[in-house]
Amino acid sequence: MHRPARPVTTFDPTLTALAADMVATMYAAEGVGLAACQIGVDLALFVFDCPDEDGTEHQGVVCNPVLQLPEGRSRQLDEDDEGCLSYPGAFVTCARPDEAVVTGLDLNGDPVEFAGDGLLARCLQHETDHTTGMVFGDRLSTRLRKKLRKQMEEEAADFPPGWPVVQRALDT
Ligand code: NI
Questions:
Q1: Which member of 6, 63, 125, 128 has the lowest number of beta carbons within 10 Å of its beta carbon?
Q2: Does the annotation mark 127 as catalytic?
């Protein structure tokens, strides 16, 4: 998962089926977002279903996402717990800008844009990171990265190898 994913260039029923599979996997694992690389597919694409600061749910699919973050005075960091379906059961504090905008393409290859605050801002940043070969552990201090690893080890018994794909299989 530590390399940039291939851009999506073909917008066909195979892509739509992949996105549907990703959504089902995300729900099965009770996540708020999932990138294709997390289910072993090398494409720059993610799905999400995530509440914003007000609790309003937002759903979407973004191919070839590009992130825009606030700069200068409008840049405020939000320190909150963050988790990842690729680090099941582990949550540690990660500081990120409290607002984010993602542009990209939908499943038809048409432009889309999603903007949000709260957990949605965190989710859009986290999932875009996945498509560029970054996981949120990479954004942590050495101390917090150790904490994340320790939590993962403690939780390992509850999450079989192959998570989150394996959970999808158990549900269906
Ligand atoms: Ni993740």
A1: 6
A2: yes
Q: How far apart are CA 99 and CA 118, in angstroms?
A: 7
Catalytic residue among 30, 53, 127, 153: 127
Tokens 């917008």 appear where? 11
Architecture of domain 13-158: Alpha-Beta Complex (3.90)
**Distance of CA 135 from the midpoint of ligand 1 (Å):** 6
pLDDT 10s digits, 65-91: 999 999 998 999 999 999 999 888 899
**What residues does each domain of the chain span?**
13-158
pTM over 0.90: yes
